[in-house]
Design a protein that fits this description.
By secondary structure, this protein is α/β, with parallel strands linked by helices. The strands form three sheets. Strands 3-4-7-8-9-10 form a six-stranded mixed beta sheet, with helices on one face. Strands 1-2 form a two-stranded antiparallel sheet. It is elongated and about 60 Å long.
Length: 180
């Protein structure tokens, strides 16, 4: 989209819409639609590839993306700069500065997620990341190789496969607890 031969960003389009519409549900729908358009995904897409997009977070509006599409089954976030899976307690995209700060729903909205690729990111805290991943109860395949900037515990594989009970593969390796 262009205005006076200049490209208009998704955020600029969203902010322009907010100035004329006061319906929060409509604003949320528009934000989701614009985000999907930015990602090159269709409204009913079940697979979303956000690899290599220089994302720093999944939440907010500066080099970030709000991911709360509960129909997503496969999500590729490989090769970004994501430092945390936890939604921050801050004013969220589209809220007025007077709005009460509250945490966004985060990964709990990805109820149908079966495959998540977080390879080559900069996650800072192993335990926090593992706690957030527990919201994805349908998760079967998880890729974490190179996902952390912190030192991983020596029992990393065992802890992840124990905490995420339904996981069948971690970094391409079969979960021994799932074998019969």
């Amino acid at each position: 989209h262009f205005l006076n031969d200049q490209p208009v960003t998704v955020e600029e389009r969203y902010q322009a819409h907010l100035t004329v519409a006061n319906n929060p549900d409509e604003a949320t729908r528009l934000h989701h639609s614009l985000t999907l358009e930015y990602c090159g995904a269709e409204e009913l897409s079940v697979s979303l590839d956000l690899g290599g997009r220089s994302l720093y977070s999944l939440w907010g509006n500066t080099k970030t993306l709000t991911v709360d599409f509960n129909q997503i089954i496969e999500l590729n976030l490989e090769g970004n700069n994501i430092t945390s899976l936890r939604a921050p307690k801050e004013i969220t995209f589209g809220q007025s500065p007077d709005a009460e700060a509250k945490a966004m729903p985060g990964l709990s909205t990805l109820r149908h997620l079966k495959m998540l690729n977080l390879k080559d990111n900069k996650l800072a805290k192993f335990d926090d990341s593992l706690n957030e991943l527990q919201w994805c109860q349908s998760l079967r395949q998880l890729f974490l190789e190179g996902a952390f900037s912190c030192r991983l515990p020596s029992d990393y594989f065992a802890r992840v496969t124990t905490e995420l009970a339904g996981l069948t593969k971690l970094d391409g390796r079969k979960n021994p607890k799932m074998m019969s």
